[in-house]
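User: Some background: our group keeps a shared notebook of sequences we're curious about, and every so often someone picks one and asks for a predicted structure to add to the entry. Today it's my turn. The entry only has the sequence so far, pasted here. Could you supply the structure so I can complete it?
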Amino acid sequence: MPVYAPIRRAQWPRMYDLTITPWTQNDRARDPARRLMFFLGSHRPWWLTHSPVPLCVSAHTLAAYKPGSLAMPIAGVPYVIDSGAYTEIHDHGAWRWNEDTYGGMVYRFMGDIGMPMFVAPLDSPCEPDVLLRAGATVLEHQEDTLESYLYLAREFPHAPWLPVLQGWSLEDYVRHDAMYRKAGIDLAAQPLVGLGSVCRRGSIKPIGVIAEHFARRGYRLHGFGLKVTALRAYAPYFRSADSMAWSDQARKTELRLPGCRHKGICNNCPRWALTWREQVIDAIRESENYRPALV
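Assistant: Of course. Here's the predicted structure to add to the notebook entry:
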């Protein structure tokens, strides 16, 4: 378990008067929100030093820091690194990094910031708009995701690489799971398995079908960018999840909390991010009314 630096709260003032649910995970806690670790998504890496809750940060935002920069944050809480795959391929049609470049960057982050709980590989999402932009099939993106994970795990073995299941239908994910097994990777034995291509679906029902299938087989799932509605319905099928929908919500609704001292709306506001996180925690608690816990 990594040792995290002391949290400096100078830029997260106590004037917020927020009640923050503890983030420490306990599989047998009475509070359902303690059985799932939720990583608050952030596009402000310096939050890593000051945040009182676990964070998910994109490799693209961390890459903006120069090696050895004095501005590089030091993690005061658990954090994970997302590859930013959807945005990368949606905007550019393919990865602009190769595995050697990416693996080297991740090693630098590990040394400068601290050890993340996991790092996503250069996975390739399977949303229809991404496939259209890339001119690829679901199978091709599954093969690319598996190859990236295998290469990174072999060549950069000290990083906590997260195997990611990609697909669109349940049958796709089952096939990708079989591809991992054929490559010698038993995902049921992994500490955590990422479930990709779940955050931009029109309906949450397929997410529940897919997550239930693997969770009931003992897979410990991480949900990338899960909607609050999906967590409210299916949280017991996940061991962890992340989202930064708080920022999009503030931008789309032009939200500004009373009493905030920053300029403009709250799309970069720690106070709103933590307030929104508590709404997510409440949704996770409500999930007990929808699906039986897997214990």
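Suggested note for the entry: The two ends are 23 Å apart (CA to CA). DSSP finds eleven helices and seven strands in the chain.
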